[in-house]
Amino acid sequence: MSSPAYTRLENDERRRQLVALGERLFTENAFDEISMAAIAREAGISKALLYHYFPSKRDFFAATLAEGAEALRLAVEPDPDAAPAEALLASLAAYLRWVEEHRDSYAKLMRSVATVREARELVDQVRDLTAQRVLDGLAGGSGAPLPPTARIAVRGWLWFLDGAILDWLDGGDVAREELLGLLVGTLLGALTAAGAGDLLQAAADG
Amino acid sequence: MSSPAYTRLENDERRRQLVALGERLFTENAFDEISMAAIAREAGISKALLYHYFPSKRDFFAATLAEGAEALRLAVEPDPDAAPAEALLASLAAYLRWVEEHRDSYAKLMRSVATVREARELVDQVRDLTAQRVLDGLAGGSGAPLPPTARIAVRGWLWFLDGAILDWLDGGDVAREELLGLLVGTLLGALTAAGAGDLLQAAADG
DNA sequence: CGTCTTGTCAACCAGCGGTCAGGAACGACG
DNA sequence: CGTCGTTCCTGACCGCTGGTTGACAAGACG
């Protein structure tokens, strides 16, 4: 009599299609600038089907984030055999490389940090982990306990990192290696000011 | 026959009452955690009256911010007669003092930065102004143009500032003067790494 | 053919920010 | 005392949001 009212898709295929669409839409629009109804319309399906695949809008957003987050985590994973300072340097370089290649995703993530709990948790996790790694690397270099200012220095430096990267992406007038030098130099300066500069040196030498 | 259905208040008095209530509620809850209906309920008035006094929720939020923002701006205003480096130091110290005295407001502001355009504009304004002041102070110390890395260093440092302050408020284990030293030392370190450390020295000496 | 699972949709819900026509309080005036 | 006008105030409503429900269509299997 007529063409079918809709076409069935395999579960996984539909899911992949929706995640891919979400990656695009959430990069073009901020989290609350686009409604689930609009997303469903764009996908050519009903809103209810979208909710069939993802229990909530935030879950959907998190799903569009997950793939990239995993890739980033792998890229940044430090080499356990290298000296702490070298491992940090390598991770940092990998981080910048990833950001440069996925600048839209990175900007999206930073923009949504305060709005979406999932995004905030992701960034916080990465910050906590990184800060802990840096502090461990420092403390491992000597037996002395770290002053609390060292903690503030490292955690503040992670903010510096993201702020500098955002400005770097915005400006486009600085090479990646140059930024890397600025980041490392600033960490050194912050740790020196925190009274833990010698530990960094020791960690670098050791 | 019966008691009045509601009591009338003078325009200004009602407005003050609402702003005071907003300051409390927005400190206890994030911007989108509390609805205008709930605020009106808390104030014992109708939602329409709330909208009679403030054209939108964001305007209402901005009104609750305005008083503190103005006080902060005054406190941070640098002494035009002082040398750039000293003026910066004084402003920074005033900033920390203000944050310590209004930690709830500060945390509220930082939490709402990405959600509320008005808050974002406020923080951006302060950052831009501060960055410009610092850069001008540096450039004034010599005729040489600043490298783009210096811009990134200063703007990144402002992120460091807020990140460090949040951690500082969280920890409570570091004195204000110590934090001040860390901040100044980090700026010095960042500018040195950006190849503009000599300019800072010149500005401090000049 | 029937039946069972899976995929789909229209219609609906409570709550949101925001609007509007009109009622109720109160000071002024006869 | 009445009543009148100003101004402060309200209940009902709007379009939209994220999220839910129940019924039905498509295809696989016997």
Features:
Arc Repressor Mutant, subunit A; 10 helices; 206 residues; Tetracycline Repressor, domain 2; homodimer; mainly alpha; disordered N terminus; DNA-binding
The CATH first-level class of the largest domain in chain A comes to: Mainly Alpha
Question: Average pLDDT across residues of chain A?
Answer: 88
Indicate the percent of residues in helices of chain A: over 70%
Strand portion of chain A: under 5%
Can you identify the CATH superfamily of the largest domain in chain A?
Answer: Tetracycline Repressor, domain 2
Number of strands of chain A: 0
Protein chain pair with the most extensive contact, residues per chain: A-B, 39 and 39 residues
Description of the structure:
The structure is a homodimer of 206-residue chains. Chain A has 206 residues and is mainly α. Chain A folds into two domains: 11-54, Homeodomain-like (Arc Repressor Mutant, subunit A, Orthogonal Bundle); 64-205, Orthogonal Bundle (Tetracycline Repressor, domain 2), CATH 1.10.357. Chain A has helices at 11-28, 36-43, 47-53, 57-76, 84-101, 103-112, 117-140, 148-171, 176-193, 197-205. Residues 1-5 of chain A have low confidence and may be disordered. At the A-B interface, helix 8 and helix 9 of A face helix 8 and helix 9 of B.
